[in-house]
Amino acid sequence: MNISKEVVGVYSENCYFLEKNNEVIIIDPGDESEKLLKKLEGKRLLAILITHAHFDHVGALYDILDKYNVPVYYNNINNEIKCNNLINVEEKEYEISSFKFKVIYTKGHRNDLCSFYFYEDNVMFTGDFLFYLSVGRCDLEYADKDEMINSISKIKEYNDDIVVYPGHSSKTTLGFEKKYNKFFKI
């Protein structure tokens, strides 16, 4: 799987493009829809995955849906995303063409937040749950510090060599975060 990143918007959000055989999945189309649509030229968009519904992660969603009639995978617990092709995700495995992933609820920063673990490629997209040496804020609407602690405990069970692609900043590995992230010491 080829993974590319477009940093978009005023909060420098990471929008990811996952590609296999000219087929693409987008994760968190946050802003700058023109830039994201240009990147899709000549490709077949299969789906959009949303880690959580903060505006900096979904700002370009509807512009992309206006051009591509694809399913949106999202934990719509707060009923914030409105579209015809919404798939309200559960904690289970999914398969979209040759892409296979597991949804992991990683609440804390928001109650709708989920991470997408592409187990065949050993990569995880964590949105604003887990960052390089940090975790998402727990002082915003729908946030809960206790849920964040539970999510950290849950994610510690996964392999150290998983490459983590966060919603902002640089990629990391789960093993590095287990060893050096102060929030993993709680």
In short:
It contains five helices and 14 strands. By secondary structure, it is of the alpha/beta class.
Name the descriptors:
Metallo-beta-lactamase, Chain A, six-stranded mixed beta sheet, alpha/beta
Notes on the protein architecture:
The chain has 186 residues and is α/β, with parallel strands linked by helices. It has a single domain (2-185), classed as 4-Layer Sandwich (Metallo-beta-lactamase, Chain A), CATH 3.60.15.10. 19% of the residues lie in helices and 34% in strands. The chain has helices at residues 33-39, 55-58, 61-67, 145-155, 174-180; strands at residues 2-8, 13-20, 23-27, 44-49, 72-74, 86-88, 93-96, 99-105, 114-118, 123-127, 130-131, 134-135, 163-166, 172-173. Strands 1-2-3-4-5-6 form a 6-stranded mixed β-sheet, with no helix packed on it. The chain has a 6-stranded mixed β-sheet with strand order 7-8-9-10-13-14. The longest helix has 11 residues, at 145-155. The mean pLDDT is 97.
Query: What is the rounded Rg?
Result: 15 Å
Question: How would you characterize the largest beta sheet?
Answer: 6 strands, mixed
Count of individual beta strands: 14
Side-by-side strand order of the widest sheet: 1-2-3-4-5-6
Ends distance:
34 Å
What is the CATH C-level name? Alpha Beta
Domains, number: 1
Order of helical and strand elements:
EEEHEHHEEEEEEEEHEEH
- The structure class reads alpha/beta
Report the β-strand fraction as a percent range. 25-35%
**What coarse outline follows from CA principal-axis ratios?**
globular
Helix content: 10-25%
CATH topology: Metallo-beta-lactamase, Chain A
Q: What are the segments in which pLDDT stays under 50 over at least 5 consecutive residues?
A: none
Total of DSSP H or I helical runs spanning 4+ residues:
5
Assembly annotation:
single chain
Q: Which superfamily, in CATH terms, is the homologous superfamily?
A: Ribonuclease Z/Hydroxyacylglutathione hydrolase-like
